[in-house]
Here is the input.
Amino acid sequence: MKKNIIKIWATILITLFIHGCECSVTTAKLSDAKVCTQLETNLCAQDNTIIDSSSDVIYASCILKGAPENTRVKFTWFYYGDTKFEIDHVVLSTQDKIGNIELHSTLSQPLNGWPKGVYEVRIEIEDVNKEPLVKQFSIQ
Here is the structure.
């Protein structure tokens, strides 16, 4: 009798685990987030927290470490005017690449020029409950 109860519970637990677990586990992590106006290869060489309003493009770069295939990283750009609002976002996929991968996103100057003030880029691995990397910078 005891063996039957153990088998039933084991079957229930295995079934719940296989069908009920929709969690995402990854060893991937983001590092070395920087903001700049010019890339060296695929990364910002320096982190610029103050950017001139005459810059045509702003880059945000990072390194994705320990990435499995098809890891998705989202870059979200914000502007702090009267309230914080999203300007743009892009999702990059590693596709079949694995390991340490250099990533970057760009934000192009609007037709009317850059509004002066505080900006932010948030970089996060999608579908993973890890703290995003957040870089604030200002345009003067």
